[in-house]
Write a structure and sequence with these properties.
single chain; 224 residues; alpha/beta; Rossmann fold; 5-stranded parallel beta sheet; two-stranded antiparallel sheet; 7 strands; 14% strand; binds adenosine monophosphate
Length: 224
């Protein structure tokens, strides 16, 4: 297997970011998180950021024609040449199709789509307790991973905030959007023989071990 080109699929709050961090380190992949790219654009008040902000605050998807260009540009960068890990993309069938045809043009292939499954109920609990350091992006959870001092980042003392789109109302909308627009990608990739499912309610380290074992098997099959 020349390169590992992976997609992380799953509802918001499934732990994609946590898994991405570990996978990126273990397999030296370019981690491309469209949500992070967009949040940075909003913070820097670029044209993209101004366009995306209202969709994001409401928990809706940024239009396909906006996000597809951003993603294809990131996949084409030199650091993604030896393998990439997409986190938060694709989220619609047209996005998946655009990615597929671009990779085909480049003579590249997806290795696997890793789907992390978590119930809606658990998602709401997880996300509504999430607090972030707006400067560094460091994430805490009021119950499961609290900072040492309430409301303050352990490392640099910055006051932690709740992301606008992590408010309970918005989370429910993000889940609706996920079920309507993103969940159909499971069937889409299953039909292409690429889908691998993981139980995201397990501990993050356990989820990671299972993903790593799956990737090892895929690599082995590739050499036979
Ligand atoms: P995330 O951090 O991945 O949950 O993304 C945060 C927000 O960014 C989403 O709720 C969307 O508004 C927007 N976003 C991120 N990735 C995409 C995408 N692939 N397509 C459309 N909108 C996206």
């Amino acid at each position: 297997m020349a390169e590992l080109n992976l997609i992380l699929l799953g509802p918001p709050g499934a732990g994609k970011g946590t898994q991405a961090e570990q996978l990126r380190t273990e397999f030296e992949l370019a981690h491309i998180a469209t949500g992070d790219i967009l949040r940075q654009a909003v913070a820097e008040q670029t044209e993209l950021g101004e366009l995306a902000a209202s969709y994001m605050d409401a928990g809706n998807l940024v239009p396909d024609e906006v996000i597809i260009g951003v993603l294809l540009e990131a996949v084409g960068r030199p650091n993604a040449r030896d393998g990439f890990l997409l986190d938060g993309f694709p989220r619609t069938i047209p996005q998946a199709e655009a990615l597929g045809s671009e990779l085909e043009k480049l003579g590249r292939q997806l290795t696997a789509v890793l789907m992390i499954e978590v119930s809606d109920e658990e998602i709401v609990t997880r996300i509504s307790g999430r607090r972030v350091n707006p400067a560094s992006g460091r994430v805490y959870h009021v119950d499961f991973d609290p900072p040492k001092v309430d409301g303050v980042d352990d490392v640099d003392g910055t006051e932690l905030v709740q992301r606008e789109d992590d408010q309970p109302e918005t989370v429910r909308n993000r889940l609706d959007v996920y079920h309507e627009q993103t969940a159909p990608l499971a069937d889409y990739y299953d039909q292409l023989g690429l889908l691998q499912r993981f139980d995201g309610s397990a501990a993050p380290s356990e989820v990671f071990n299972r993903i790593r074992a799956t990737i090892a098997t895929l690599k082995l099959e590739d050499t036979i």
